[in-house]
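Sequence only, no structure available. Ideas?
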Amino acid sequence: MPIRLLPPNLVNQIAAGEVVERPASALKELVENSIDAGATRIDITMNDGGRAMMVITDNGCGMTPQELTVAVDRHATSKLPSDDLTDISWLGFRGEALPAIGSVARLSITSRTAEADSGWYMVVAGGRKDGPVPAPHPKGTRVEVRDLFYATPARLKFLKGASTELSYAVDAIERLAMAHPDIAFTLTADGRQRLNLPAGVTQGDLFDIHLERLSAILGRDFAANAVPVAAEREGIHLYGYIGLPTFNRGNAFAQYLFVNGRPVRDRQLTGAVRAAYSDFLAPSRHPYVVLFLEAPRQDVDVNVHPAKAEVRFRDSNLVRGLLVGAIKHALAEAGHRASTTTGAAALSALRPNTTRAYPPGPIVQGSSALDTAYAMQAPLGGELAEDAAPPVSLFDIPPSAPEAAPQAEEADAAAIHHPLGVARAQLHETYIVAQTADGIVIVDQHAAHERLVYERMKAALASGGIQRQMLLIPEIVEMDEASAQRIAGRAAELAELGLVVDAFGPGAIAVREVPAMLGDGDIAGLVHDLASDLAALDDALALKDRLADVSGTMACHGAVRAGRRLNGAEMNALLRQMEVTPHAGQCNHGRPTYVELKLKDIERLFGRR
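Reply:
I predicted one. C-alpha cells follow.
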C-alpha cells in the first residue's frame, strides 16, 4: 500500500480524537481560551449534556477578523510569543482545539475587540470555513458548538447519558473556577442554572479569595474543616487548603491539584498526598485537598498529555518532598482539632423523646434514671467499687492525695477553659464526657490513647530509639510456620521498634522484650497482628518505611482498652495530653477521637432556642 498524506479534514478529526474526548473536553478548551483572553466573566449554556449545544460567552479581549480567520487553522496560537516550548504562560496553547472542534461539530464564533466598531462572525462546519462577516456583539467572544460529533457518529456511541456528561462538564468548570477565583462563572444546563460563582472580592490576601471560592464549590463544611498550607522550596511555591483527617470520604474525587494555574490529575502528586496522610487515614479513606503549585515554567513540561491533564517536573523528588512535608506540617499545626462534621452528625442522630423510660425496680422519689445509674458508680476521682481493680496510671502522672472540695472546684473551673474541658463522667467504661466552656466533649478513650501512644513511639524513634522492658519470663507465641518465619526474619528491625523476638523452634516465637510504653498488654495478640501486617507488606520495604502500619499495630495494643474504668485524674490527664499532642483529633485509622457538641446546639434539641 503506497504512503500518502492524509487530507486536512481527516487530520483535524484525528486531532479531535486526542483533544475532544467528550463535551466536557471541548468545554474545558474553550473556557481556557476565555481565561487566557483576560475575561473577568464567563457564561456557559448547555443542552443535552453538551451534545446538542454549548455556548461560551466572555468579556475578554476579543479577536480581529484577521485573527478570527487564522484562529480556526491548525497550529495557530497567540500564546507562544517566542518559539520556546518550555516558555508556556497560558492554559490553551496547542492551537488545535478550535479546528479540532470545528471538524467534528458545527462551530460558530462571534468576537469583537474594544477598538472595533462592530463584531465579526465566522462559521466552521465539518472542517469548512465561512466568513468572517460583520455582526453586532459587545466586547469579548461568543463561541457556539452545536451537534458535537455529528461528523464522527462512531464517537457518539461512546458518550454517556446527558446527566453524566453534564456532571463531567460541571467538574471541569469547577476546577478552573478554583484556580481563578477572580473570574465570575455561570453555567446553565437545559434552562436550569447549575453554577453561579461570583468573582471573589476581598480586602484580604489571595488565601481569603480562594477559600471563599472553595466554600462555594465544596460547601461550608470544607471551610470549617480546612487547614491552610503554605511552603516554598528552591523557587517552587505551594499553597492551598487541606481537610482535617477526620473530614474524609470514600473516594478521591475531592482532591484538586493545580500546577501553574492548570488543573491536573497527576499520579505522582496524588501519590504524595496519599503518603502525607498515611499516618492518619485508612487506605480506603481519602482526604479533601485543594493545592496550588507554582513552579518556574522551564522546570515543568505541560505538553506530555494531549489534554494537558498530566505534567512532568524536572526534579520530581523535590516536588514530592515539598508536598509531603508541607501537608504533614500543616496537619501538625492543627494540633488536636477534629472536624466539626462529627458533632453535627452526632446531633443529627439525636431525636427528642418525650417518653420517660425508667429501669425496672424501685425509683427514689426526686431522682432520675440517670441519677440511679450514676449512683451505682464511684464518684469522679473518688474510690472505685470494691470489686473493681485499682487504677494504674498510663499517663506519666504522679499519684496525688485527694484534694479538698474547694480546691477541686477551683481546678475544675480552670480546666473547663481548656479546649477539651474537664472530665465529668465515664460512660460504658469506654467514653469520657467532659464539660467545656461552651459545650461538652465525648472522647473515645481507646482511640485517643492509641494516637497518643503512636505519637510517642514516633518521637522516641526520632530521638534515638524506644525504651524496652525485659520480660521476667519470655513469652512463647505459637503460630503457623510461615508467620513465624516472617517475624523472625524482621527481628533486627522489630528490635529498633522496641520488640525483641527470636525464633523458638518451628512455628513459635519467643518474645523477650517489649516497648516500655505499651505496658501490660496482649503480647501474643500483638505478635499475631504484626505477622499479618508483615504478610501484607512488600518484603523489600524496611519497616521504618512502613512505620504507620507497624507502629500503629503496636500502639493499638498498648492503648487503654474500651471497658477499662478510669478515675478522674486519669481522664483529665488524657484530655490534657490530647491538647498538646499533634493529630490527637483522630486515631491512626482516621476516625475521630472525640466529638464536640456546642451548648447552643444542645439547647436547640430541647427547644430552648
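The chain has three domains: 8-197, 206-333, 417-609.
Hope that gets you unstuck.
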